[in-house]
Amino acid sequence: MDIAKEVKKAKRGSKSSFEKLIIEHKLLMYRVAKTILSNDEDCADVIQEAIIKAYEKIDTLREPMYFKSWLCKIVINECYQLLRQKKNVVNMEEWLETPIKETGYEKVEVEQMLEKLPEEQSRLLKLFHIEGISILELAHIYEVPENTIKTRLRRSREKMRELWNEIEGGSIWTNGKSK
After folding, report:
1. This model's pTM is above 0.70
2. Crossing angle of the two packed helices 3-11 and 67-86, in degrees rounded to 10
3. DSSP string spanning 29-43?
4. Residue 171 — φ and ψ, nearest 5°?
5. Model pLDDT for residues 95-117, shown as the tens digit of each residue
6. Residue 172 near residue 165, CB atoms below 8 Å
């Protein structure tokens, strides 16, 4: 599918073209939402709101080739909006239940390590390494230069490596030398 062509049609009012674009990016929207929110129902709500906003504001998109980044930015903003709304609300069911992880041991370990990182670093690593969003797209989402994203990724990886070495009790290797 030619994304730019479909975006241009959607900007002219084609509902079917907009629908094709959303179907093409639905998994990406879910993955982006899931990096910020833990609850699938919240992800669904956020995606629904993001789709509505994208439909209403598609005419504000200047470059059709950046549709994916633009849509991701809307999803991220909607996630933060939901988190702000829920900030002071405590769900009693979640509070009483103990969380159960049904995924593999490695995945749990990686998630636990990512939780120990600052939120921004954790999200950036998830978006780049797990969701496969490119540096260019991340630069558009965060509205910073590509080199800034590269630097942030490097620092996030270094912090993750430090956490790993603390857990494993091993020495830290830098440039072939242990510290």
Report:
1. no
2. 70
3. HHHHHHHH---HHHH
4. -90, 155
5. 555 555 455 666 677 777 788 88
6. yes
